[in-house]
Amino acid sequence: MILLSALALATSAQALERQFAKGYEYASLPVCTNEAESGLSLYKDGVAYARKDSSFILSMPDSVGQASTKQVNDEMLSDLRYDGQFAYDEKNQVIYVSHEGLLYSVSTVNGKSAPVQIEGLSAHREEFASGSSLAYRRWRYKVPGVTGLYNPALNSKGDKLYFSAELAGGKGGTDIWMVTKKSDGSWSAPANVASVNSKSNEDYPFIAGDSLLYFSSDRPDTLAGWNVFRSRLKGKPEVAMLPEGINSKGNDYNFVGNGKAVYVLSDRDGNVDVFGPVKKEEPVVETPVDTVVPVDTTPAIKEEPKVEEKMPEFEPCTFYFKFDKTEFVKNYDAEIKRTVAFINHYSDAVIEISGHTDVRGGDAYNQDLAQRRCKAVYDCLVKAGVSPKNLRSVGYGKSQLALPNANDAQSHLLNRRVIIKVVQ
Length: 424
Fold this sequence. Notes:
- The chain is mainly beta.
- It is about 10% helix and about 30% strand.
- The radius of gyration is 24 Å and the shape is globular.
């Protein structure tokens, strides 16, 4: 996704996430808030991410395995109002961003921007209306027949640009594509990275050491929704899902990392936050001290202690929906079965079903749509054997957006959701 620093290049790509597996647990970073975070991107000496209309640069931890706590607001990035992640070319001092479905190159020296010229994707100009600084001479560029190019990623040489899109010749849904830089500065026609794509959706590419491609997918063999995968770019391609911890039973999207840390954007706790590895605390073992204790020879009546089983934490499940419908975007049988098993064991638990929509449409309509989506999940749970007394539903319409600044198909999808969680 970026031009890797010397530290990242010195780190074996094969070990990028493995060194943060054993002895680590993944937790949301202290800088996260109740607002959704988005667009993880390695940038200069840190990690950039967005929240609402602001972009921040998070410093790398002082030592491996520590949680990052230092960050600054970056005005130039905030003014761009880009969508999703971006790619940083340190050598040429350029970043590649997506805005309203088209890729732009932006100078980090003077902020000047221009559309990325890709062979076969000819653009025409339309008057620019938004407040983004990507207004190129007050015009924006549209590609006929293309719904959008998103989440750019760059190799270390800066001559191969990866992105996600739905283009003719793909395998189905959103695929990962790659273009090669020409001598005149333009880019070749898009090539489908067929070794990683499937009939499901693939998105959020990240290039490590020019030898590994990390990406997220909602293919059927994930833990639940979206999970992070990796594949070799050289030699025989082998697609493998990253271990649980980095992945979860929530949705895990945007993965980046280097030799000091790895980060993943995830909604595993119900909110879209940045998660990173933290060293597990070693248990303290006390050394027994020999003491002389008087022996009580009086016979005692043995009472069996009453052990009350404590209800464990239930990891929330998220169901995503097609636009303006109550139909799921994929099969959620695994989530339904997990919920049923939990209720069967803890019959006093109460499950809240909360429904949400994206920002498009009126308040009243979206409130009704959110309630109908709750009913769709409610009916699935009752049909599977959950008693109605264990369920309660609430529709929020578009009042609690996971991504408030969503303006592309993928971001709108993440807002169209129903979350089920244990509330008591």
